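# step 3/5: fold
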Amino acid sequence: MPTLRPRFQVTETSEVERALKIAEATWPDATRAERVVRLLRAGADALERSAIEERARRMAAIEATAGMLEEAYEPGYLERLREDWRE
C-alpha cells in the first residue's frame, strides 16, 4: 500500500516468530500486519506501565526515607561547611 510514512523491515528471527505465534493465538481474526501493529502497541504500553511503576517505587522510597537523617546533623551544619568553600 502506498504511503509517505517511513517503513522498516524485520527479519523473522526465532524471537519474532514466537511473538507472532503468541499474537496469532491472541488475535486469531487479525491479519498478520494488524498483529504486528498490536504487538508494537502492547509492547509500548507494557514499557510505559513499567516506567510509571518504577517511578512510583522510587518516589515511595524517597518519601519513606525523607527526613531520616535530620537528627544526624546539627542546625547550621551545611552553612558552616559551605563557609570553607572557595567562591
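# step 4/5: annotate
The two ends are 65 Å apart (CA to CA).
# step 5/5: archive (pending)
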